[in-house]
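Hi there. Long-time user, first ticket. I'm pasting a complex I've been working with (about 436 residues overall). I'd like to know whether the download I got is complete or cut off, because the file seemed smaller than I expected. Thanks.
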Amino acid sequence: MADEVILLDFWPSPFGVRARIALREKGVEFEYREENLREKSPLLLQMNPVHKKIPVLIHNGKPVCESMNVVQYIDEVWSDKNPLLPSDPYQRAQARFWVDFIDTKVYEPADKIWSTKGEVQEKAKKEYIEALKILESELGNKPYFGGDNFGFVDIAMTGYYMWFEASEKCGNFSIEPECPTLMASAKRCLQRDSVVNSVPDPEKIVEFAFKIRKIYCV
Amino acid sequence: MADEVILLDFWPSPFGVRARIALREKGVEFEYREENLREKSPLLLQMNPVHKKIPVLIHNGKPVCESMNVVQYIDEVWSDKNPLLPSDPYQRAQARFWVDFIDTKVYEPADKIWSTKGEVQEKAKKEYIEALKILESELGNKPYFGGDNFGFVDIAMTGYYMWFEASEKCGNFSIEPECPTLMASAKRCLQRDSVVNSVPDPEKIVEFAFKIRKIYCV
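Hi, the file is complete. Here it is re-exported in full:
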């Protein structure tokens, strides 16, 4: 029996896109189902009753929730192609460390850049750049966080890379002069087939960001 | 050459204790080094320059940071004894999901119970019990979250189990009537050799909690 793989997702989500990219890196066929987050589907509520959030990967009827948990699950189930996590325990621990860093130290200011203004937004921009600089220093002169290969940490960051333009426009600042090598890696990631096929048009994200910004920053 | 394993830790830490327990489950000899968190050692600052937090596991000179990342590293390196994560990808994803739940939905209110008072504390107590009830429902009638075996999620929770008495005394409430089967599992966990040898005397934690509470709740 062929695998049935369904992804509950929301197009501009930096978390949802991680699951899309991981599935495409592995060449897994899946059914994409767009969620309306203002009126969540009964299936989403049933499959993720704890957090009620996308992405949810439903594999042969069983749900996996939380984006990087989904990516790790995909990596373990479809282990024959494009490994996303390294096999060495120390390198795996390092990759998990940086993903956790991204999910706390990048997520929090990134979220505030589009949803706040004034001093709060200025502080968020400073924290965002600080976090990106730490990542740039970790990246060093490697093409990807995964070394020569696009991997776990790169997938985690690509959700933010696809929002870079929207973040810059909402915050009226530039990332590239502060983090040139991170930006070069971002461009490399955004050109991959798995990513091109998963990421929306940046202009659409900018438009979406300003639309929700209006609601949060009245 | 024998492995050199050093743990930078702080005795009442619900995070540090996770690493201690995992090492003892695996029968790994290690050197425990107590940190003074008001005056962190040069070694801690060197080994965890990003977060500057305990626990840090230093294995043959190389640091691993973030408690559950440390536990997973230990599980992968010393894989021959007492597996902590299941081998099935779906069950692994479920275990990681619940650990993430604990590190967000249990951590946040638990932290506020000893560090706040009045309405904020009341709200935290309510959220704490709600989160524990969700965990109790996930536990079901299994002896451990790991099923018949003490595992990854149990280790994550044991840091909170050892603080239960302090939380109850700081918040003037009782956990057992609300979550009787979770409490039964907690008691089971707290009796394991690996845990008995890792967890401080509950009275000492209560004393510590009231000492720091005085600083936060003036």
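A couple of notes from our side: Chain A touches chain B at residues 50, 59, 62, 64-66, 69-70, 72-73, 76-77, 89-90, 92-93, 96-97, 100-101, 134 (CB under 8 Å). Chain A has two domains: 5-78, 89-216.
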